[in-house]
């Protein structure tokens, strides 16, 4: 593959990029780097200057949907970067931001970028230096991520193609090309994923005394024990469903494991097909004996057990299969008199979405596969044959085993030092700590959520001087102390307003439940604005102090979710600043009533002012640079695909401004192209915690400006959500956040580097083979040193 620089040469004053140079379908051959190939094909020889080594320690990383390994991990726990709305690129809509015309082919493909992200997750599972049970956890995360990708992104793309509304992507690919890329690349990654489990992780688990075995590997005693378990706990809930003229092909629910059974009537000699669904509420792996586990489907499919399900019949063959359906929601809010009722109805319809993927055991009989494809109306390209067992999300239960020596060392967050001078069992006085404009910058999970944000709301609920609490809830836990505090506040007579986002993907049902519970307790519950999701993370407490009303605020990057706050990396600002308090009052009034306010004192708010506010600041850095003043742009986000923002970054780079982008998952920026983006660097960090904070820093001519908040640089965030960024005013806090950004982008920090061709290269060791710094471990150790418990 040629170096991208020549394709970035100016022709008649305009840069032209050759799309085929950047991994368009069929553009190259696969690069084989041991077990860690990159998502787009190219030759080994083009990367001879990049050291490729085994890694001496886990690299830091990012997950699109990091399933916690210490709690029951379901899709509803997550805040994924997956949206079914596949925006076509409207060049005319982006042209209003000024500057000379930028070249075609300057954006990386979003879907390819997401698949590359999930490959980075897989690389941590493949890395033998990752703790063993964490490798199992990353395998489960990869599988769960891919499930969600098919349920939402692939399903949405297929729907748009079918209805004729899909348009070419910003990368220049047509919808059918994107779909074929997804099928091809996901098939490769699924094969690698299965091989990693079969050839590496499962044998390593066995070496540590944790055996995940198949039925024929069990001893007679173990099989006998499981027969008893089958008859008493499993058989009563199984429902074999025949398929014949009197029994139509049964409905197959999304993500369920199913057994396709071919039986023969010994009297007539006729063969029949039947389906047995694996009960989803039973354990995925059953313990046959201490530290020996067998998949539940193997227990159901054991010959003796199938005979119990089909007595008097001959069992000819059986095969496992798993179907993925479109599970995205489409709620017509403008036509719905009651959003809650409309959403409940749509949740019922979600169960019956059309199929988008069929996973089968690679040993499946062709006639059985043809029957499944015909009845499920699914094409050959959507069939994924894999070695068993299917559905490795079940490895979450294995990763949760109590074997701490096979996991990352345990870390328990402490109280932030600005909230409590000395660690103690009593909760800190949050209001006292914030008086006098003493802002507190929180960094979770390194700073305890329970003794900061949770304590803030619990104290507000119990404080007789607090008159009102206003709160946004996007996702929270099933036993949420946040919800309990709001209920306590309402029941004690305080005014409580709660913005519950009913449309938080895969948390809709839980949020409906909490909305009703809050309403019953006397809280004022609203669902935000029609057509917009309320994604901002805001709390406002109004307190009577003498003759004055004082407003205390929290603006964060993460959900008010105590469980995921122990696993997600997030930032938050606790403040008594009255400008911030006034801004939150105005914003809550807009969300709960009627207001056209679009400008704020210390906030940038989507969908009106956030994109324009950031682009204005990026453009201002160009002027600072030209005037010889300090200028830079530093961004940390989960995803960046918004063309207008990216184009502003390209223009800043062309002007000579240094641009650093630290991205967790999807990235459409093409860095390092001569004449376009040679001043842009892109890094990705992945590790034990989910990098989830959003942060924006500008050199501003020597007076640094820093913002934090809830918004990613995506169309949905900037155009179809209520998002909020708050400006950080404390010089010490700005310096802390800039140091964090510099550390994440440093060449001495373990990370993945994005190239102009869209390929990510892992950097975990230096040229001497020594491990690079792990930013998450550095932050953990800093907190331990503060408490005198640092590792030597």
**Main sheet characteristics:** 10 strands, mixed
Q: What would the principal axes of the Cα set say about the shape?
A: globular
SS-based class: alpha/beta
* Annotation field: number of helices: 21
Per DSSP, what share of the residues sits in E-state strands of 2 or more residues? 15-25%
**CA-CA gap between termini:** 46 Å
Low-confidence stretches: 1-16, 18-80, 84-96, 329-337
Name the average pLDDT. 84
Radius of gyration: 27 Å
What does this molecule look like?
- Helix content is 33%, strand content 20%.
- The strands form five sheets. Strands 16, 20, 21, 22, 23, 25, 26, 27, 28 and 29 form a ten-stranded mixed β-sheet that branches.
- The radius of gyration is 27 Å and the shape is globular.
Topology (elements, then pairings):
Layout: H1 4-7, E1 10-11, E2 14-15, H2 91-94, H3 110-126, H4 132-163, H5 175-207, E3 211-212, H6 220-234, E4 241-243, E5 257-264, E6 271-277, E7 285-289, E8 292-295, H7 296-301, H8 303-309, E9 314-325, H9 339-350, E10 355-361, H10 366-376, E11 383-386, H11 395-399, H12 430-434, E12 440-444, H13 453-462, E13 466-473, H14 481-491, E14 495-500, H15 508-520, E15 524-526, E16 533-534, E17 537-545, E18 548-556, E19 568-575, H16 578-592, E20 603-606, H17 610-626, E21 632-637, H18 643-654, E22 658-663, E23 680-684, E24 690-691, E25 694-698, E26 705-709, H19 715-719, E27 721-728, H20 731-745, E28 751-754, E29 760-763, H21 775-786
Parallel strand pairs: 3-8, 10-11, 13-14, 14-15, 16-27, 19-24, 21-22, 22-23
Antiparallel strand pairs: 1-2, 4-6, 5-6, 5-9, 7-8, 9-10, 12-19, 13-17, 17-18, 18-19, 20-27, 21-25, 23-28, 25-26, 26-27, 28-29
Helix pairs in contact: 3-4, 3-5, 4-5, 13-14, 17-18
Active site: 535 (phosphohistidine intermediate)
EC number: 2.7.4.1
Domain Polyphosphate kinase C-terminal: 430-596, 603-766
